[in-house]
Amino acid sequence: MRPVADNALLIAFVSNNAWSVYNFRLAIIRCLIESGHRVVVVSPADEYAQRLTNEGCAFFPVQFNNRSLNPISDLLLYRSLRQVYSTLKPDLIFHFVAKPNIYGSMAAGALGIPSVAVITGLGFAFDRKDLLRTIVEKLYRRALKNVAETWFLNREDAQVFLNEALVSAQNVKILPGEGVDTEYFHQPGKSAGAGSPAFTFLMSCRLLRSKGVAVYAEASRILKNRNHQFNCILIGFHEAGHPDAVDAADLTDWQEQGLISFPGFTEDVRSFLESADCFVLPSYYNEGIPRSLLEAASMELPVITTYNRGCKEAVRDNITGFLCNTRDAADLADKMEQMLLLPPLTRREMGKKGRELMIEKFEVRKVYRYYANVIQRFG
Question: Which intervals hold domain Glycosyltransferase subfamily 4-like N-terminal (predicted)?
Fold first, then answer.
């Protein structure tokens, strides 16, 4: 355990599960601990809670359902978080995802504890104009009055909040995603075509339709009808019960038709990235900036993704990869075919430039500066 600095703060990370904190924010937490601060993670407990404590964090379990629309359970969440914050007395709180951002920010504000709301993406509530969106906007408008800063991962998301007067412009910061550890996601000496003998496309994501999984399968069908030889691999975890989840029957059908291979979920995507020739993410989800794109580019893979908000920011079209239209399997197939037919050295150069972009713009240590700056305000 590292010694605690004289000016150390107790910093809380509050999210809907320990898995996301461990997988998306561990590098930031390590930087905080190395700087002498104490970190406590507040979330529902899962198998990643112990991993976080092994890293030197404290862990405080709190139960809630991030997809529940029950106002009573939301009131209970507010009261629960307020009690947790009263007990822990953190100096600064970072909230992630919708319910912690709303009810956690309200609870912190009521107790006079400074907090930062990190909007990692707009999610389904902002896909439509209905009563749910109206309610969510009212809740955000109230909650974000209490925060020190509101962080977004792309300018379009920030503009949505500004247009609806949900947030004050002077409190808005635009982060370069949540960052990628370019030392961890690195394969020195990668050579073009170093993986499978057949050209291999890889898609890694939550198995949601809006991530473009069905678009990927259909693009594979189109390419196979053009008599190309290639593999399409899909990895990710299936969120049973999610309203946008890909049907298990569809996954089976796509595999039986030879459109995709589905090894399932992996905790370490690097071995799949090492053996792939191109990474694909045809998302039309309300993304922040997808971590999977950053990891793939950091591993020197050329990338194909969409003009969707949050996706296009991670790619320089025709330089580090290709952009395609959303929900357009034919356009995706064309871009995949274009990638497949490129000379291996050209693809390798794309991959190198992609890694250079990650180091220049998305390296996690650049993101840490935002944390360090706001911590300095309250230190």
Answer: 11-147
Task: Judge if 151 and 253 occupy the same domain.
Answer: no
pLDDT at 1: 47
A 10 A CB-CB count for 226 gives: 9
Q: Assess whether 64 and 167 both reside in one domain.
A: yes
Q: Is 193 a domain residue?
A: no
The three-state (H, E, C) secondary structure of 209-273, written as one string = HHHCHHHHHHHHHHHHHCCCCEEEEEECCCCCCCCCECCHHHHHHHHHCCCCEEEECCCCCHHHH
Question: Containing domain of residue 323, as a range?
Answer: 199-362
Instruction: Say yes or no: 275 and 257 in one domain.
Output: yes
Q: Classify burial at 293, counting beta carbons within 10 Å of its beta carbon; exposed 0-12, middle 13-18, buried 19 or more.
A: buried
142 and 204 assigned to the same domain: no
pLDDT in tens, 29-80: 999 999 999 999 999 999 999 999 999 999 999 988 766 777 888 899 999 9
Task: Decide if 173 is inside a domain.
Answer: yes
| pLDDT per residue as tens digits for the range 351-363 | 999 999 999 999 9
Show Cβ contacts of residue 40 under 8 Å, excluding neighbours closer than 6 positions: 10, 11, 12, 13, 57, 58, 59, 60, 88, 90
Structure-token pair, residue 243: 């309203």
**282 compared with 127, residue with greater pLDDT:** 282
How many structural domains is the chain composed of? 2
Element containing residue 351 per DSSP (H, E): helix 344-357
DSSP letter for 67, please. T
> In which order are the strands placed within the sheet that holds 303-306?
261-264, 230-235, 199-204, 278-281, 303-306, 321-324
